[in-house]
Design brief:
Layout (H helix, E strand, L loop, with lengths): L22 H4 L6 E4 L6 H13 L17 E5 L3 H15 L6 E4 L7 H6 L2 E4 L1 H14 L8 E7 L9 H16 L12 E6 L5 H7 L7 E3 L23 H7 L4 H9 E2 L2 E2 L11 H8 L1
Parallel strand pairs: 1-6, 1-7, 2-4, 2-5, 3-4, 5-6
Antiparallel strand pairs: 8-9
Helix pairs in contact: 5-6
Length: 288
């Protein structure tokens, strides 16, 4: 079984700055992994390699693909429904050719239990996954949850937001179920966890939480971007009220930083600008 071809947008750019974790860490093993890498550096490709690894169990010795629908599920978790819908469309086209059943499951799209059982790739949000897995646990049944063998979390930096507690609860629940005797012999007993992000500041802590082996953590800096960027570091006075208040106070400095960048000779020379914040509330405060 061949891994999906890279998207055309990832074939361009400076090849020396292409950012890919060694395939052996993702496709060549079943170990948990965490990858922190800049935007547009190939993280989606790594997620697809992990999916291919999960599907490779259906490859027969003669190279044929002996698919058993729903027998070993991959769950992709993303914080935004728009991202879930985007990936659902792309992967339906890409993996559907192999007979892989892709199911989008968000607050806007409920699925019948029969559909979920037959799905190979489930794309969902933390809240929806929390809801469906909690219902099965409350009922005292395993259901299709026992067929989950891979969970990949995109934009895992949401752990630092209010919604992060939901994701933590889901992962904790799945790890607890994996350790239970009722899972013996089911795919969940060998559950693999993966997480990717462009902005997670504490990747090592996340890797420890997911119980990754030492070689399962990969962190890439800005120097590995497909398109090089100039990096400048600007310091500000410490806030005596603590690190949390200091982080909140940074929003007040954004305008001054932009002025220094785009105001030349008393005239504004604006360019498209992205301002990254560590939380949704921080983004809202900065915009105001």
């Amino acid at each position: 079984m061949q891994a999906p071809a890279p998207h055309p947008s990832r074939r361009r750019g400076n090849p020396r700055r292409s950012c890919h974790a060694p395939p052996a860490q993702v496709y060549g093993s079943d170990s948990n992994f965490v990858v922190a890498a800049p935007t547009a550096s190939g993280k989606t490709g790594l997620v697809e390699l992990a999916m291919c690894r999960n599907l490779s169990r259906y490859v027969a010795p003669d190279g044929g693909f002996e698919h058993q629908p729903g027998a070993s599920k991959t769950v992709y978790v993303a914080p935004m429904k728009a991202l879930v819908q985007e990936k659902s469309k792309a992967w339906s086209e890409r993996f559907g050719k192999l007979g892989v059943r892709v199911l989008e499951m968000t607050g806007d799209s409920d699925a019948a239990t029969q559909e979920i059982r037959a799905a190979d790739l489930i794309l969902t949000t933390p809240e929806k996954l929390d809801s469906v897995t909690r219902k099965h646990r409350e009922r005292g049944t395993v259901g299709w949850v026992g067929d989950i063998s891979l969970v990949v979390m995109d934009e895992v930096h949401i752990l630092g937001e209010r919604r992060g507690s939901v994701l933590e609860a889901v992962v904790g629940r799945l790890l607890m179920l994996r350790a239970s005797g009722a899972m013996r012999g089911l795919p969940l007993s060998g559950l693999r966890l993966g997480a990717v992000s462009a902005t997670v500041p504490n990747a090592a802590d996340v890797a420890g939480w997911l119980r990754c082996p030492p070689d399962g953590l990969r962190v890439y800096g800005e120097e590995m971007r497909p398109v090089p960027l100039q990096v400048r570091v600007q310091s500000f006075p410490e806030d005596k009220r603590g690190d949390f208040m200091f982080e909140r106070s940074l929003a007040r400095h954004v305008v001054g930083v932009l002025e220094g960048q785009y105001r030349v000779g008393g005239r504004w020379q604006w360019k498209p600008t992205l301002v990254f914040c560590s939380s949704r509330k921080g983004c809202s405060d900065t915009a105001r």
